[in-house]
Structure formats: structure tokens, C-alpha cells
Amino acid sequence: MTTPDHPGPLDSxxxxxxxxxxxxxxxxxxxxxxxxxRTARALVEEGVSLLEVSLSGAGALSVIAAVHAELGPxxxxxxxxxxxxxxxxxxxxxxxxxxxxxALSDGAVRAVExxxxxxxxxxxxxxxxxxxxxxxxxVKVFPASAGGPGFLRAxxxxxxxxxxxxxxxxxxxxxxxxxxxxxxxxxxGSPLTGDAPHGxxxxxxxxxxxxxxxxxxxxTPEEQGAGPEEEPGR
Length: 234
Known about the structure:
With 234 residues, the chain is α/β, with parallel strands linked by helices. The chain has helices at residues 12-22, 33-45, 60-71, 85-94, 106-113, 125-133, 148-156, 175-180, 190-193, 202-217, 221-224, and strands at residues 24-28, 50-54, 76-80, 98-100, 118-122, 138-141, 164-166, 186-188. β2 (50-54), α3 (60-71) and β3 (76-80) form a beta-alpha-beta unit. α2 packs parallel to α3 (60-71) and α2 (33-45) packs across α10 (202-217).
């Protein structure tokens, strides 16, 4: 539904452009909805505008709706951990601009059907290809810590057309190696947010946000070489 307060979802092309420009997707998952909203606000104030609010956190849908209403286009808010059809439908209703899933779930399929750009979780080459064929805007390589930048680089060889976003245990000093390995962006949760979504230190959060953004600024697309090629048959 498109209303003045909920301007509707991005399309896949625009989300990919934002991922390629910002290079950093912050993941907010907290036990305290108000603290999660404060965390999102602080991240946006520090220049981190792409945010995923995980549905496994407390009151995630209310956090998405509240932050969307407060910040408007300053924040691009997605719903994470979308596992079921009701998850996808509730995320769209709350105003999520995109969806993120840990696997090729029923929720991932429904999010694609609803027109939400979707980052679909995968780990193996077979999973990566199935996620892409299912309509993923980009494939979330999860958990990235299981393979590191070298594994992501290996995935890029057979799948040069598939935008890859490593998520799971990405520390600040790994941002540049992942981007150099061919990631279109990195997704970062607790290494960035720390205890802030649970009511913790916002000053420390801001310092970490500046550190992560500093790492991103060290990267230029030329270092990556050729980016994702034209989508085959999509």
C-alpha cells in the first residue's frame, strides 16, 4: 500500500544502487523497542542510512513503523529475519522498504511476490544460485564468518552476476577485505550496534559507526575490479 506516510517499497535496482553507494547495511536487533529505535536514529545521524530491523528483536514491526514515521527518507528501513508468509506481509504493512532473510524461506518467496527487494540468505553455491533464481535482489552470504573474504571471493568466480552481501560476524577490520573480495556491501549487526539496541551506550555506538564508515570510505570500486555483470535472464 502506498500512502504519504508509507511511500512504498524500493525497486530492486534502486536498492542495489544504494548498497553499492553506501556499502554498509546496519542490522538492529534488540530486546528493547525504544532502545532499538534510538539506535536506528543514532546510526542515521552518523551517516548510516541503510538499516535492517530484525523481526527476531522485540517489537521490531513497531520499531520499523516508528522510525519510518520519524525519519522518513533519511532512513531506508528493511525488515530482517523474514521467515514466514505472515512475516513478509506484516513487514510490508509496517512500511519496510526491503526484506532480508537468513535462507530461501517461505517469507523470502512472499516478499518477492509482494514486490519487496529481498536479500535472501545462502551459504553454499547451490543455495546462492537457487536464491538468485527465486528473485533475490542480492544474496546474503550467511554466516559470513564461516568462510571469510576468501570464501566470498571464491563464490564470485562462478557467480559474477550475483550481488553478494556478507553478513554474520563482520568486524570493522574485515570490511575492506570483503569489499575487495567482491561484496557489493557488508551487513553488520552486533559488531556495530553492540548493546545499544538493548538500552546500552549510544556514545560507543556512534564511535563504532564512525569507525565502520571510515573503513568503507577506504574502498573505491576500482579496487574491486568489474562489478556484477548484467543479470542473466532476469
